GTPase HflX (Thermococcus piezophilus), 442 residues
Amino acid sequence: MKAIGVIRKSRRERIRREEFEELLRSAGYEVVAILEQNREEHPKYNIGKGKLEELKELVRELWPDKVIFANKLTPSQAYNLWKELRVEIIDKWQLVLEIFEKRAHSKEAKLQVELASLQYEVPLVKEAIRRIKLGDRAGFKGMGEYQTQQYLKHIHYRMGKIRKELERIKADREVKRKRREEVGFILLALAGYTNAGKSTLLNTLAREEIEARNQMFTTLDTTTRRFKLGGKRVLVTDTVGFIDGLPPFIVEAFHSTLEEIVKADIVLLVLDVSEPWPEIRRKFLASLNVLRELKTLDKPMVVVLNKRDLTSEEDVKDKAERIMEIVTERGINVSRVVSISAKFGQLEELYGALEEVVLTLPKYGAFEITVREPEKVPQVMALTSAIGEVLSVEYGEETKIEAYIQTGMIKELTRLGVKIRRLNQPEHRESLKDSEGDEYRR
């Protein structure tokens, strides 16, 4: 389909043409023209009357299927523009929802997209009802007043049903998440701006082949895969990408998916380091805003500068330092800033950072496991190796095993009749020092 794009820039709205055009292409539109204007918002048309006349000429000349605004339109503005242009009018967030609808595959993702679309449609229907009562328009989508009122009731009914279904899916996921924690998994969540390379990173970490394309919003379905970090078992989850100014109705609709970030032990915030610094800064701050809205900025976070193969070492180092300046200035809990190339499997810095951060998690610690019955040593060793990392073993009348394990697995070990004592967290795993600590007994 053919589309004309409209961008209005102002002091409050700094819209990037390149990103808007990329959104249009991702939605499958042929962009026949882009109209730009620098001015504050016009209350009736969003753009000025002179620019509206110019847009009319383009519509008559190019016959587009839609006119798409990069700015958010009020229901009244959308109607006024339709009345003048007589062509379908949508804005950036309706465009994003169109992309979401094409990319949603799982039942949950489809429900989330439908909920977001219905939430967006409610004010449009209410505006249509107001217009009908003023005698200004013959209904919504060709419907009369009564039909439009009934349609609004249907929207609210359908939204209620979707929310209940998403709550059920959320409850099922919560059961799975608790079980994963019980069996000793560390939970990582990939977060960041759309098209930063999160899916490629998941594929490299877990040796998978999940779809990863160089386009916006490839991932809508939550994907979780496992991998090993040393002797530790880790689950990594890919989540929907962020975009600047992500509106509350999309955050709400996708909350059950974004909750994977909320429930994670560590957040990996992925950025494309090959982009110019102003773009990296903008996307970093936009991502932080979403994480702040999700109330996850207090979690351990590793900032991952991806695609380092597309730029120089000096450039990567400079951008990493600038990221840390922002982090320090704003008091954000960032454990490390690392650079990687997910495409070429260059993840050494990331592995090292994760090893360090995991050891600081409250759920993961150093313990001394004392086995009094020799015949149980092989069983205890096997279980300890499966749920953590054995550091040293001292055989004797009582076998003493020093290991890093997840605290949630202590109950599993005590069922074997062992004694468990927490050790001081060492600066290095090789230099464990005993200390009197809490004892966990059967």
